[in-house]
Amino acid sequence: MSTFCNPQQFRSNILNVFFTAVNRFVRQCLNLLSAMVSQGVEAAREVFSHVQFKTLSGLAKRKDKRGKPDVRLAFIQFVLSFLVSGDSAIIGQILEVKELLPHILNTGLKEDRMSMVNLILSTLKTRVVLNKAISKTQKVRFFTPAVLTNIASLYKWNGIVDATTDDDTMVEDTGAAGLSVVRELVHSFLFDLCCSRKHGISFHDPSFGTAGRLGNLVLLQFLVGLKQATEDELVTELVVNVLKASPDILSRFFKETHYSYTPRIRSAWQENVRLLKRIYETQPEISTIFQTGEMIPLPRLLSMIMVVSLPPVCNKAFFTQGLNLANPTVQLTTVSMINFILKKANKNMEYLSDKSAGHKSVLYTVEMMEELVQQYRETLGKILPDMTLIISTWQSLSKKEKADCDAKKAKGEKGVELTENKNELPVAEEAEVIVLKAFILQVICLYQKVVPHLVTQSKFDFSKLLKGIVSEKGMREEIPPVLQYQILQLALDLPANKFSWFHLQDVVNSESSPGETSVLYLLLRMFASSSSSHLSSTTRKLVLKVLRDTGVFEYTFTELDLWLDQLARIKPDQQETVIHFLERVLVKLVCNSYNYTDRVAGFVQDAANLQANLSVQEGEAASVPVSHIDDVLDMLDVIMEGSDGEMEEFGPSLSEDLIIQTFPFSAVVPAALEARNKLPADRGVVCEYLSAVLSDVLHCQRDPLPLCLALQQYDKELVSSQLLAFHQSIANLHQYYSRWLPQQCREELFKSSESVSEELSAPSSYSSLIKAAYIQGPGAMLEDTFRQNTEKALAFMSLTEFPVLIKQMLLYIKSTVEDFGKFSKEHGDAFLRALMGMLQDVVIRLQSFQEATNTDPAAEEPQEGSDLFLELNQSSPMECNKEQIVVSALGSIFKHPCLEQWFLALELATLPPHPLKPVSLKRLCAQLTDHILSLLKISAPTLDELNHLELISVYLSAIERSALKELVERGFHPAKTYSRSFQALLFLHSYMDSSNLRELVSRLLLLPRERLICPSSEGTQSELSIYGHVALQILTKYYSTSSQNQNTFLTPAHLHGLGTLLLSCSSPELEAFLLQILSSKPGSAKLIHTDVLLHCLRRSLPDSLAISCLLLQNCSFHRLCFEVWCEEPANMEKVSETKAFLPLINTYLQVAQREDPARPKDVQKEVLEAMKKALLSKFSQSILGNLTEDSGIHLVEAAASLIKLSADLNDIWDFISDLPDALQKAESFERLFNLSCGSLQVL
Prior knowledge:
- With 1243 residues, the chain is mainly alpha-helical.
- It has 66 helices and six strands.
- The chain has a two-stranded antiparallel sheet. Strands 3-4 form a two-stranded antiparallel ribbon.
- A hairpin with a 2-residue loop joins strand 1 and strand 2.
- Mean pLDDT is 81; it is low at 1-5, 416-425, 506-515, 620-654, 753-761, 853-879 and 1233-1243.
- This is Nucleolar pre-ribosomal-associated protein 1.
- Residues 501-615 form the URB1 central HEAT repeat domain.
- It comes from Characodon lateralis.
- Pfam families: HEAT_URB1, Npa1.
- Residues 23-271 form the URB1 N-terminal domain.
């Protein structure tokens, strides 16, 4: 002990032991020192001050080759004991001594035992890395790049496994399991140390290294020194996450790294690029740049964006060399890198262009962001390869494929046999080329989005790319769907002037019809032959885009869907002829558009002149304007004037109306009819196709006369050409459209009486069924067989059929309305009813439409790599378009002039021009209004859900105007039945604008009392009239569904009107609504007249007394009125004998305790005295007797309040005397105990 007390002797003895060659003595000495250090902070500090650690560095190298406990282990435990037992000062001093921990980590850590590695890493992690008392500066000074490299060497640990794990594989493969454990330990340690800004050595640089700061140099040197980042997955993960946490060292890392990024045909280069992509995939979003709250100059802002989005090694030389190497693997790696950079840039530009990002708008204006995006585009444009190099890569691949194909054909069967055993490599290469070509197409699309100026500078005709995808026979079977999709997406994204869609070219690989054709033909062929619904939908979009971009279909582009729909329905073996015909028509139309556009305008002008002449003739021959109609008919005064200005009020908006009138059909109609008349006789399939399309076009017309005149004109030209034969479908179409031609200009061109019946002998679709019935006449639609057939056909309709079918039915309805006077009374009403009923069935079916999606084979078996590299949107077209189709279909219904003009036309006295007699006019108006109202009722919820109530705004406005008009014109006699205006108001008021609805309710409630109630007969009480019920229902529905603007919706005048109604009639609904209002808005009680309280007291019903309670609680005037009412002996006797008044009495006694200087005290005292005389004895008897749980609480509380307010000891002496006897009974005691304790205390 004396030796320990002598520091000099102690130090001398210890040092002498350390220099001995006997390892056992050295270990025991180190264990002794470790035990001394573990005694506490003071002991650790004492030992640290007496030991010369610089002389002990050699102990870390004294290992036992047999794996037994050695001097190194004891030395490590001794050093770590300072970290475990010392305070922050001791730990800091230990970290400063380079001969201790750094020396330990540098002398064979990779070969140490697993337990020793775990001890070192866990101690460093808990006592240094996660220790908040150790500053980040101390950590950085200790964890030098050399120390970090020594720790990282544990990823390749090859020491002895001297510990067990929970892993079952430890028994089977001890070495592999131990290595896995050590790798996870070191990975977790380095991850926390290098990636955590809170505990680790990573410093945050908000400038991303663009401000010139030194930054995280330790981490930079450490990462540069790692050699196995591309070989070891854990090391790769470490590098990626360190650079994610410290993006400021990104640029310097790639400048100093030993990895080469010069494109070459080696797997090592591909692994380097793969690491590069992983690093930039995890870089922070550019939104973090704008979260600093500081204004950053645009040049530095752009530099910061480039740091995290563009690798510095990816320059124009990198891309050019990679694409010029004639190796698909190198080219694929290069193009995929371009694709990755462009996608990241596109995402960044979308964020920068997003005006909704509030944190940007505070510091940066929209103009500044636009300037930044433009600079971003220009910077990328200088780095990315130009479009010529991208396209030349595609062309070289195509040429190589063609050469390989020709070589295979030349070899023949012998060559196939020779290479039969060598198929694996060519298949892999072919798949690689497919993915490469798909990437090239996607890169071109991204060029248009990110650097469009590079696309604009290119003079290449991108329509040539289609030649490798589509042949004369349609989509090439060997072309995978991923390439088909990408070429279509490319054509959709690029500007129209980059394609020569209508330029005639020599047909390549055409076996059937050599000659000239256009690229548009390939598109149509691609659309018709596609077996994938998704590819077909994308091709349709492309065809529509191409045709719309020509400018010929600017206002009639919706008609193009009809041409494509019918083309898709043609049998595959007949498509070729129709596609050639349609392509030639479209090319001729685009090349000479003004000629055919003028023809359409001429037919429109002819139709207008014809209608004007017919209107003059009908005006001269028609009866005089209708004057006052007989009272027997109960009709309004109808005055028919000229049609000038009438259509403007009830038809569509001016611009839409002008468009529909000026362009009723597209210029392709006359062009196709002209080409049809020149067809040879063996082109019957083209005639059938044209007839089907023109029928659909006819069904979509609001005014079919211009189209019918055009059809008849070209049919006359066909007949005058004296061809020996014409197809039957032409005659059928002629007889069909002639129904819409006026008798004066109708011509019988084809003599074929059975043509129509033969064509429609067995119709299958809903459209053909109603077409056949319409041709046969009204009786056909009224047959039960027809009704059954339409119900079956409706169940099997596809979603795309609904829009045209609905327009077809609207055409029939319009024609029936115009010809209503020509039908007999029974047939006209039944025919119109049948049509409107079918339209309603179709709308119901459309709204509830659910179609099982057929699984696409291409989607089930995607091409290899397509799901990894390409973003294919394989969502069902039906799912995407249902909402759009529903809105479009309902819009075509409710925007149709016929329905808009005739809805409530009689009530509004705004009848459209018509030749009808008064009786027929009334029937027509009534029936149309009823059916339109039914359509509105079933469609309004859907439109409200889809946020498209504007489609029925005209009808809601008509309902409001007609209701207000009725209130003004009906005089002082209330209606006995609901008019159509008020029926519509009741059904649709919840979809009306609240301000308009409030005005209407105000007009209702402010009506004279006589109009809001029905006169009572002898012995009965008056009830609410029709108008009173309407006002009440609207208010009830509004207050039950709307939580906004309730305060402004119901004004004091409204409340006064409601009170007046309540006094004048018996209406439980009105009482329930008033109770709801008083419950939700207690302050409304001050706006209610006191007569309402007296009325409720007289009725003595639950709702009436509940209203009385609320009035007493919230208004002192009502309390005074109640007190005056109670002073009447008869009223007090009624209160004392009726249990229903008990809640009311309790309420009054509670509010009577409030201080109210405005109320006379004498009246209250008199009322309380009267209540005490009339009620207190009865209350006492009830409490002591048979007290029910329902009324017990109210009774006890009322008695307690009454005693507190007016009684003295003499008044309750008898009650106090009898109370002990009542409590002796168990039932009475339990019942009284469960009542209000506060009330019993008063008692």
